[in-house]
Amino acid sequence: MGLLYGGWLQMAGADVTFIARGSRLLALKKDGLTVSGRIPFRLTHVNVVENISGLAPVDALLLTTKLYDLEAAAIATLPVLSPTGSVVAVQNGVSAHRVLSTLIPSERIAVGPVYALTKMTGPASVAYGGIERAILGSPGHNARPIITELVGLWRSAGIDASVADDINNVLWTKFIGLATSAAINCISKLPAGIVYHEAKLLELVKQSISEVIAVGKAEGVKFAPTAGEDVLAYLQSLPPDTVASMRRDLDSGHRIELEGLSGEVMRLGQKHGIATPLHTTAYALLKPFCDGPPPAQALTSQTTQEPSVHSFS
Questions:
Q1: Is the distance from CB of 104 to CB of 77 less than 8 angstroms?
Q2: pTM to 2 decimals?
Q3: For residue 258, which of 228, 305, 291 has the smallest C-alpha distance?
Q4: Is the N or the C terminus of the chain less surrounded, counting Cβ atoms within 10 Å?
Q5: Can you give the three-state secondary structure of 187-219, one letter per residue?
């Protein structure tokens, strides 16, 4: 995703340096960057490094990793941030600001949700879908000039970009659908055309939505009165074969962002004394897959033994 958001900035004239490794590093140096989507573009030359040592101080660090890599990515790159620079995290979930504020003063952090869906189609090429949108904000603070500048650059590249006065509301409103779709798609293994329309499954969807809104309100979020209904209507409008990105990661055997989605809802529920049965169950069922498939030896030990049979009378 960093190639897309950074590519938009370079397309608009910003001085951008990408961090990459292995075959991607070599391909970007040799071939530049190719992006396909509603706004396709090609950058014949990009600045790309494997190591930040030797880089001049930068005005902004754009972090677009998965949630589980955010802290490590920030620690690795903060040394190159100028003393007045800002960290910009475009992430799923609602925890990015909390994670980063342990590393850098809160007023130097801007966060925003993910709207574009990306897929690497080659070492130096990426395809995207979803919405060309970037919304940033600094919880509890006014946006710094560099954030306004980044938003202006994205706009000049044709992106729907803005600074939000209440970024927490933006993050949490998106989080309602994000946490719901991730949990329901992963535990049911069913796509949007079924889970958001079949009556019994729809009850679980509504339960998830109510849990996220309840913990969000307890955290001080002021949702629109129709937030739940609006999210449900959006989910029901999705193409029938749509699944959450976490479901794709689960099916591919990749790590999943469970801790920042159902795990976050569950922990905040515990913090505020709010029951979250749907997300607590989803967390328990999916926890073994958090870091990819469970170890082969664990599965083997379970499947090679003669199964026990119990009779209840």
A1: no
A2: 0.90
A3: 291
A4: C
A5: HHCCCHHHHCCCHHHHHHHHHHHHHHHHHHHHC
The 8-class DSSP code of residue 71 comes to H
Q: How big is the chain, counted in residues?
A: 313
| Cα–Cα distance, 59 to 122 (Å, whole number) | 30
User: Which value, to the nearest 10 degrees, does the dihedral of the CA atoms of residues 214, 207, 212, 283 take?
Assistant: 130
Nearest Cα residue to 229 out of 213, 217, 249 = 213
Q: What is the DSSP letter of 259?
A: G
Encode burial over 190-212: b for 16+ CB neighbours within 10 A, e otherwise: bbbeebbeeeeebebbebbbebb
Q: In the beta sheet, which residues pair with residue 33? A: 43
For residue 114, with 0-12 CB atoms within 10 Å meaning exposed, 13-18 middle and 19 or more buried, which class applies?
A: buried
* Whole-number Å distance between alpha carbons of 274 and 196: 25
